[in-house]
């Protein structure tokens, strides 16, 4: 993918959909009723759409700095974690008060880290395919 805008859009959409799906799986792991947190994946999807818009504007402005999948994934991850902080999803509250709501907050952060690791591994595989066995990774 030579076009940086297309590449960044694909990375943003994949990471957004993975965040929504992992959030859905995290809700399934808790004992919370559907009415209590059932709309959380839609809220995460709305936040991810905001991140896509802000991320694409950032990539357009700083086009020369975002040349790899990993840099684009780091941009998405930092914006996503910033929105989680603004959403007041405190991951450390679970260790003080062990409720399902606080567990879900922890899982939002853990899911985010797992998705970033998936993108990191994909970047390594993609770089090996494009550049061969060189040490330019």
Automatic annotation (TrEMBL):
Q: Which residues are listed as membrane-spanning? A: 39-62, 69-90, 102-122
Q: Which UniProt keywords apply?
A: Membrane, Transmembrane, Transmembrane helix
The protein depicted here goes by the name Uncharacterized protein
Q: Which organism is it from?
A: Chryseobacterium defluvii
């Amino acid at each position: 993918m030579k076009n940086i805008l297309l590449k960044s859009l694909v990375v943003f959409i994949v990471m957004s959909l993975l965040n929504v799906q992992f959030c859905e799986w995290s809700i399934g792991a808790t004992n919370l009723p559907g009415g209590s947190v059932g709309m959380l994946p839609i809220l995460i999807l709305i936040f991810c759409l905001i991140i896509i818009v802000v991320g694409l504007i950032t990539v357009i402005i700083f086009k020369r700095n975002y040349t790899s999948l990993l840099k684009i994934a780091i941009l998405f991850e930092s914006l996503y974690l910033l929105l989680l902080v603004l959403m007041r999803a405190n991951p450390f509250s679970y260790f003080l008060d062990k409720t399902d709501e606080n567990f879900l907050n922890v899982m939002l952060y853990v899911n985010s880290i797992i998705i970033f690791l998936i993108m990191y591994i994909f970047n390594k595989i993609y770089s090996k395919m494009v550049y061969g066995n060189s040490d330019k990774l």
